[in-house]
Amino acid sequence: MILNVCQEKFMDVLIGWVDGAPMLVLGSAVLVLMALAVATGVMIKRQHLRDRRGKDDGVGDGESYMVSGVLGLLALLMGFTFALAVDRFETRRMLVMQEANAIGTTYLRTQLLDEPHRARISGLLVDYAENRVALGKSNVARNPQLLVKNDRLVTELWAATASAFQTIKGLDFSSAYLESMNTLIDLDASRKAARLVRVPTEVFVVLVIYVIVTAGVLGYVFVGKRGRSAAAVMLFMLSMSLLLIVDIDRPTGGGVREGQGPMERLVESFKATPGSAYDRFRIQDAGPAASP
Fold first, then answer.
1. Which residues lie closer than 8 Å to 77 by C-beta, 6 or more apart?
2. Cα separation of 54 and 137, whole Å?
3. Which helix (H) or strand (E) segment is 254 a member of?
4. Cα–Cα dist 110/131, whole Å
5. In a domain, 7, yes or no
6. Contact 184, 102 (CB under 8 A)
7. Cα four-point dihedral sign 130, 131, 134, 135
8. How do residues 46-91 score in pLDDT, each as one tens digit?
9. What is the pLDDT of residue 292?
């Protein structure tokens, strides 16, 4: 029981540190750990040669098989983790497109409502889309007011929809309109959930441990300046790959984020074509009817 509680606390601290630490700090920590592992491997190799009272300037067949096996398994683990991170990234990217389409559809259907519901809901949708763009580009932990505004706009949108429903509840159009508004609200919850779903920390822990073990094996196997230079280049590339995976897995704090292009284009279309642009034929049709 106590062991489980300690393990959970340790994982919570580790997750918080991995999520909040800058990439430069993470990269430096990984490089330091790998350098220590290489130094340990070199010391073990020297002790082994000293015990054998001989010299070994190359890589034996057994050691060559060991290096191939270790690097092959590391590539498998890293590829598996990379696939998990990219899959979650693609999910977040597709949700941006789906949400932009849902907001655009709801906005167009809103133009069929009577005033004052049409102007009220249209204005809320424009504000909601602009806030979603800002929310997608920012770090929620640093800008919590954007998330508070988002939740407030969702509540106001549904309140405005409930008020407008009294004027359209007898029409077939009411079901389609409620469906589009429900889809918009559901996608808000889906995007929030997608930003919380991450690659399990246990996977990263195992991967980091294996990278450090691999560094120790390379330090043991590669000897001489050329061998150590090759090991250093390989370890640097491994650390860069590991940091790339961590960066992709950070929805709000990383450099690789889902693009907000569809939502930005939607906001631009709102500015270029306001709700009044859809009144042209309505005014023309109402003109002759109003004349004697």
1. 206, 207, 210
2. 60
3. none
4. 19
5. no
6. yes
7. negative
8. 777 676 665 554 445 566 677 778 888 888 888 888 898 889 889 9
9. 43
Which residues span the domain enclosing 196? Answer: 60-274
Rg (CA), the chain: 29
Counting every residue written for the chain, the total comes to: 292
User: How far, in Å, CA of 30 to CA of 176, rounded?
Assistant: 53
How many Å apart are CA 46 and CA 42, to the nearest integer? 6
Crossing angle for the helix pair 117-137 and 144-168, to the nearest 10 degrees: 160
pLDDT digits (tens, 9 = 90+) for 1-50: 566 656 666 666 666 666 666 777 777 888 888 888 888 887 887 777 67
User: What dihedral angle (degrees, nearest 10) is formed by the CA atoms of 58, 63, 66, 67?
Assistant: -10
Measure the CA–CA gap between 53 and 63, rounded to whole angstroms: 19
- Whether 107 is in a domain gets the answer yes
Question: Positive or negative, the Cα torsion across 48, 53, 54, 57?
Answer: positive
Asked whether residue 70 is domain-assigned, the answer is yes
CA–CA separation, 12 and 275 (whole Å): 48
Q: What total number of domains does the chain contain?
A: 1
Q: What is the DSSP letter of 114?
A: P
Residue 5 lies in a domain: no
Q: Is the peptide bond before 116 cis (omega within 30 degrees of 0)?
A: yes
The CA distance from 47 to 219, in Å, is: 13
| pTM more than 0.85 | no
What are the start-end ranges of the H helices in the chain? 2-20, 23-52, 61-110, 117-137, 144-168, 173-196, 201-221, 224-248, 261-272, 280-290
**29 backbone dihedrals φ, ψ, rounded to 5°:** -65, -45
